[in-house]
Amino acid sequence: MMKNNITDIEYKSPEEIKSFQEKLLHNALVYLNEHSRYYQRLFAKYEIDINKIVCLEDLITIPFTEKKDLQLFNDDFLCCPKDKIIDYITTSGTLGDPVTFGCTEKDLQRLAYNEKKSFECAGVRLGNIVQLMTTLDKRFMAGMAYFLGLRELGAGIVRVGNGIPELQWDTIKRIKPDTIMCVPSFILRLIQYAEEHNIDYRNSSIRRIIGIGEGLREQDFSLNLLGQRIREKWDVQLFATYSSTEMSATFSECEYGLGGHCHPELIIVEIIGDDDLPVPDGEVGEVVVTTLGVEAMPLLRFRTGDMAAKHVEQCKCGRYSYRLSPLVGRKNNMIKLKGTTLYPPAINDVLDDTNYVENYVIIVDNSDAGTDDVKVYVGLKYMPDFDPVKDLKDHFRSRIRVAPTVEIHTVEEIYSINYPAKSRKPIKFIDNRKK
Prior knowledge:
The structure is a single chain. With 435 residues, the protein is an alpha/beta fold. The chain has 2 domains: 1-329, ANL, N-terminal domain (Rossmann fold), CATH 3.40.50.12780; 334-431, 2-Layer Sandwich (GMP Synthetase, Chain A, domain 3), CATH 3.30.300. The protein has helices spanning 14-35, 37-45, 67-72, 105-121, 141-153, 165-175, 184-196, 225-233, 344-352, 388-400, 411-418; strands at 87-91, 99-103, 129-132, 156-159, 179-182, 208-211, 237-244, 249-252, 260-261, 267-272, 285-291, 302-308, 310-311, 323-324, 329-330, 335-337, 340-342, 357-366, 372-380, 405-409, 429-431. A 6-stranded mixed beta sheet has the order 4-3-5-6-7-8, with helices on both faces. It has a 4-stranded antiparallel beta sheet with strand order 10-11-12-15, with helices on one face. β1 and β2 form a beta hairpin.
């Protein structure tokens, strides 16, 4: 049963939430000091007295944890015997090989609780039926997390997996789910398939789409071009989410679509600037997280590399828990193109809003001039009666002031790049720059 406003910490005052998190932070520091070889070394090296970390502002005295640390010292982050690990997961690593995570029974229960709250935030209740267009295999956390959360909530679940529009529509016709959860750009493929096969998708059972892995909104919370294209075609509720394996938490929008709500009992979020210090609320910076209540591999001040802003004013839904803005992009993916600084989503928006573009991939290399060489490979739905390369470059210049190199390739070539054999998410950005 959903917690009410009286008991749920998200509805408490900002002062109560802060005090609540500071108590949980102390518990997390004690746990790390007792069980984590990695953080024991860190505390000793930097002479950190965890008893002097009494408020959230004191976190700045602790060095960051980075993905390369997880890769180089993976086993040293484990805080429990390996025989307590029930589920093994991997996530991509900056040095090439994946990073391994383990979950204990307690961690899986925490994961279920996290997703239950997130689905509730998006309006899912007992009696709803959710079609999961996400994989539960390939060492992927997300699909399993969604399943556990919906099971905890008591909603119906249809585990279809990703891709295969024909199977997705057959499932919708047979079982009549009201909610689907998938990567938002796949919705456009579903719509295209429905239109090509005379499926009356607008009058289907679907009333809600929960997006993962891709943004649906701008920084002012209006729908971005991808979100607008979906909404113009299909009058459904759209909810965006943000999550990662490392933080074992999800930020989900409520019905007002004003950012992803934080669950204060599960995670502490800092937003830091280029000087590695916190930025003012509402300003974009890098998302840094400290996990709360994780048993196997808790993390302290983990740099996600994602760029977003924190909003602390009360949401229209009544929650006081702070919210994260839609992601601006990944810090390491920032592009310097002909004197203009931008992130890949700005390029995505132009391509997503072009009706003759079927698929695409953005490839960035170092240039001899010291800036970035950006190429966009595009697959076309059809050949327009004008030069698509010139037209796309004009669109880029009008939207982002500069135009990358544009090359036309076959849809099949682009698809093979977007979905390689071991892919768990569509690959639309390839960074070949030497860091």
